[in-house]
Fold Complement component 1 Q subcomponent-binding protein, mitochondrial.
Amino acid sequence: GDKAFAQFLTDEIKEEKKIQKHKALPKVSGGWELEVHGTEAKLVRKGAGEEEGRGGGITVTFNINNSIPPSADDEPQEGQKADEQEPDLTSTPNFVVEVIKDDTKQTLVLDCHYPEDEVGNEGEEESDIFTIREVSFQPTGESEWKDTNYTLNTDSLDWALYDHLMDFLADRGVDNTFADELIELSTALEHQEYIKFLEDLKSFVKCQ
C-alpha cells in the first residue's frame, strides 16, 4: 500500500509542478518587502504615506492556511478540457493591516477580508474587492494583543467613516490593486506549500 501511495504522490507532484504558475513568488508592486515564515507571510512598507522623516510604516500579515474557499472542488473531469481561464484554486486569506506612526505608542490594526460572494461579480459599480471587518488600537511592539482593547466591528458603522478608513488604507498602498496582487501572491505561496507538503508526505510514506 505504501509503495502505491508513494507512486501516486510522485505523479501528483509532477502534475502540480506542471501547473505551477510561478516558480518564484510574484512581487507586490509599490515597494513592499516580503517575509515568509512557513504559512505566514508579512508584507512591510516603511514610512508609507507619512511625511518625510516621520518614519512609521505599514505591515500586512496573512496566513495561507484555510485560505481557499470551500466551493473550489469541482475540477474538470478527465477528458474534459480545463478552460485556461478557469480560476484555479484561488487563495483569498484574511489579512491584517497594522499602521504605525512613530510618535504614538499605538498601532492601528485593521482586520480585512475578501467577501466570499464578491469574487467574480463584476459589472456593479467599482466595488472594493476586500472589506474591513474590525478595527482596533493595539500597543505598538506588543506581541500579545489585548482582548480588553475596544474593537470596532464595521457591520454597524457609519458608511462615511468606513469610506474614510478605506481611503486611509488606499493612501498607504492598500487598495484594490494591492488586494489583487495579494491574492496572486497568496495563491502562489499556497501552491508552493502544497507541493512541499506532498513531497514531505512522500518522504514520510517511503520511510521504513
Notes: DSSP finds three helices and seven strands in the chain.
